[in-house]
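re: ur msg from earlier - yeah i can do the methionine sulfoxide complex, just paste it... oh wait u already did. ok heres what im feeding in:
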Amino acid sequence: MAHEITVPRRASREEAYASLLPQLAALMEDEPDLIANLANFAAALHQAFAFHWVGFYRMVDGELVLGPFQGPVACTRISLDRGVCGAAARERRTILVPDVEQFPGHIACSALSRSEIVVPLVLGDQVPLVLDVDSEHRDYFSATDERYLGQVVALIRARHFA
Ligand code: SME
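and the outut:
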């Protein structure tokens, strides 16, 4: 069956997220494989928002390993003591970085990244994966992104880690 993501033209970012969320839930409905669903989520977010980079890092043997993504090639492994991704996983909370040059330890996978948000999937004291989104613009992400990207991760949690 063909799947297509559509968001209303000229939608605000909030409207776009609100339209996207049920489509993401529907995309996962018939597919039990985590990687397949992460791959489609990365594609859908990239298509809807034209983010510079959007993707997942999975926790494998105590470090974050690159998972499905859309955008330029990226670092394959991030230890928990490094980067925005490592901090979000270690602290088990969403980290929004308005200016990556001001974040000590930021890992510049792409020289074009200027701001970033990382949302961990928290399961008790475990973080099996994080969602990372990068923008070429400073100050690109807001509480709206934090809220809705949190809901995106909650969908994955409910489907695969409940
Ligand atoms: N900038 C991230 C690394 C991952 S890439 O942005 C895709 C970080 O500091 O953790």
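cool cool. The two ends are 27 Å apart (CA to CA). ping me if u need the other ligands too
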